[in-house]
């Protein structure tokens, strides 16, 4: 292992080696010191406000992107304050390291313990929201991991200014600032090098549009925690409480349309569609939503345009809803199995048996009963903070918080036992 | 997700799609039925003994490999019986599925549960031990996973005969036999296709020599659970009990030299080396071991030849031991950090503080105190059976048993909650 790692060179390899050394020390640090670093990093961000906002202005001035994208890039006093408070909140979370996850004794007297340890070095590849990098540093720092940040080139100066301030906080807490690293420029080659950094980076966490995620998943030679899409379904079962269905569906689709936990497709049982669907559509239309749907849905509500099957495979991330009237729960489950992205699905019903069937059958990371898919979020799960949401099946699924950024080691305590035979 | 998956074609893709459908049903099956399939598969192996041993003779007749390799390939009545008993033992293990791993309620009344589920489809790539494929089927079946087996071409007929018998057992238990699959021939392209089967295979488990493992780790586009090497260290600290050290070192090195948990390097404190090292070497020499070592070691015992630094990076898997006399525990830890493969390391000492320092500092999957590294084995851990040992940090580390082949899903139970703001 050592040999192949040492043979790698270049900016990313050099950074990663430094980060690993620092992360090793961090993994053995006291939680008080890590918390102190988070608090001092928050303070350093506040102190550096002028420089950070100036860097952000510089990025905004040269960015050739859409207005929506510019809004995501933009920092101001309040947004920076939110980032700082986020770090302070992470400092308040319990220590995820050194926890005894399991312990048992074998008949030969050997004592086994499984103890939580950091993953090592996290590679964070993200687009342009400046908070993503800062949040990632906070979560990695708390969980004892080093992190290499590669943000979008449009926001490079902002990211550098934030990075510089956070390093000051880490130094002030007496920790090695090499636990966080950023390539010096926004050369795209750095992304490729991170994807191939076997033995140097332990896990990649990409955050951004689905084309970025697909690229990372396709090209990475190291494990990736991510969700390529959040094509979430809300299924209104025939035994749903109508008022509950109305309030949940409106929230699941329209609270925020751009997040991965937003519902993209409404499934509704034939038996209640005639009565309930027009009401649901009226509610959503009042909130600014447009609709595509299958023939049965179009037959019931004029506002629904006929959908192509591609529409049902589309994560709108917008005020658009795909609607399918389904025969029954089996039909709903088949639709989800065909089009779902493995993220989050919800059933609305008062029938416990139907809910149980739905939850046992859906293969997604998160299945919900009588609540809004928009709750799929680390904060709402009680994780305190999240670095992403994963839909793969290895390691972590669903929101990825500080606990999900840990691994474990086994401690085996003997009194001279040797293995027979 | 659905779209990219469906666009893949070829023998492996077609097999994998069938396996996934069957695995989905298996994931919802009753544990009694899965246990019954294991028991009936064991019976089917016994009934098919004549055909399996004939296929094995055919493979052996045409294999152009070393005698040691031929021995690993060879099946006989006893070895086949061991495979069958192994399946019956797996049937006796507790069900790893549907376990409530965690449960909590949020202030808004939402109830969260984390429940164990299968990983999905396992891709098993192995060399020529016929038991590896059968064990893998047993472990996957128990844990609700489908499995695609790709064994070494030298043993293809044996693997096919075993596979055919096990399918009969699965059918007899009323389960879909598509949960296990094997490509029809030993074309090497199948391996490449498995490595690239994103969305079709959830995890790859390679078993075999380090060149196979390195190849899989380098080329795979999907997660891999494996250990590339088992360069395990036993460190005899100055506060070791000498008798205990003698018995543990002899066992750790020589009980079986070809397994990944065998100790490859002995580290011993300067302070006791003059007195203890000659005794340890004498013990080992009597068992047939040869030695390379650093200058200090060579200076103390004639039998030790001067090692190159490459020797310390070598997993001997043979009756050869690398020996380094070290200044102190810091020196020992530095040696392990430089040459270790992240598998298993042991300290022999009566000094609890030194043991604690060793266990907190070593970054390997398994750290041991006063016992033999040869205990790094799923059976010895109490897992009942293992499909491999992992040294990565994502998902599972150490022995991979039925529990390690599970993932989880979140169930979120509401009563109409919608997300505010």
Automatic annotation (TrEMBL), chains A, B:
Localization, UniProt: Cytoplasm
Keywords per UniProt: Amino-acid biosynthesis, Cytoplasm, NADP, Oxidoreductase, Proline biosynthesis
Principal location class: cytoplasm
Catalytic activity: L-glutamate 5-semialdehyde + phosphate + NADP(+) = L-glutamyl 5-phosphate + NADPH + H(+)
Top-level taxon in the UniProt lineage: Bacteria
Family membership noted in the UniProt record: Belongs to the gamma-glutamyl phosphate reductase family.
Functional note: Catalyzes the NADPH-dependent reduction of L-glutamate 5-phosphate into L-glutamate 5-semialdehyde and phosphate. The product spontaneously undergoes cyclization to form 1-pyrroline-5-carboxylate.
Stated name of the protein: Gamma-glutamyl phosphate reductase
């Amino acid at each position: 292992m050592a040999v192949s790692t040492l043979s790698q060179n270049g900016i990313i390899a050099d950074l990663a080696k430094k980060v690993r050394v620092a992360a090793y020390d961090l993994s053995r640090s006291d939680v008080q010191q890590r918390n102190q670093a988070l608090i001092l990093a928050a303070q350093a961000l506040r102190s550096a406000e002028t420089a950070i906002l100036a860097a952000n202005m510089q990025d905004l001035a040269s960015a050739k992107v859409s207005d929506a994208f510019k809004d995501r890039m933009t920092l101001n006093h309040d947004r920076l304050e939110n980032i700082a408070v986020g770090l302070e909140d992470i400092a308040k979370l319990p220590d995820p390291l050194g926890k005894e996850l399991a312990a048992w004794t074998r008949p030969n007297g050997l004592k086994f313990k499984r103890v939580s340890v950091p993953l090592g070095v996290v590679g964070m590849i993200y687009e342009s929201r400046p908070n993503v990098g800062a949040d990632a540093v906070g979560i990695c720092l708390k969980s004892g991991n080093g992190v290499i940040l590669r943000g979008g080139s449009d926001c490079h100066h902002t990211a550098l200014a934030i990075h510089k301030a956070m390093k000051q906080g880490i130094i002030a807490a007496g920790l090695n600032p090499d636990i966080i690293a950023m390539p010096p420029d926004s050369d795209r080659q750095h992304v490729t090098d991170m994807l191939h950094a076997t033995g140097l980076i332990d896990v990649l966490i990409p955050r951004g549009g689905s084309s970025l995620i697909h690229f990372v998943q396709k090209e990475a030679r190291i494990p990736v925690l991510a969700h390529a899409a959040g094509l979430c379904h809300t299924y209104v079962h025939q035994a749903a409480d109508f008022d509950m269905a109305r309030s949940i569906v409106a929230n699941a689709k329209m609270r925020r349309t751009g997040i991965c936990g937003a519902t993209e497709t409404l499934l509704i049982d034939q038996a209640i569609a005639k009565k309930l669907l027009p009401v649901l559509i009226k509610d959503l239309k009042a909130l600014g939503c447009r609709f595509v749907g299958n023939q049965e849905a179009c037959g019931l509500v004029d506002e629904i345009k006929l959908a192509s099957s591609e529409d049902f495979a589309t994560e709108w991330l917008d005020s658009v809803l795909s609607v399918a009237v389904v025969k029954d729960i089996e039909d709903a489950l088949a639709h989800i199995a065909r089009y779902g992205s493995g993220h989050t699905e919800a059933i609305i019903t008062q029938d416990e048996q139907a809910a149980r069937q739905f939850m046992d059958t859906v293969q997604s990371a998160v299945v919900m009963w009588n609540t809004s898919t928009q709750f799929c979020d680390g904060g709402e799960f009680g994780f305190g903070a999240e670095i992403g949401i994963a839909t793969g099946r290895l390691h972590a699924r669903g929101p990825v918080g500080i606990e999900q950024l840990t691994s474990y080691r086994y401690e085996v305590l003997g009194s001279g036992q040797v293995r027979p035979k």
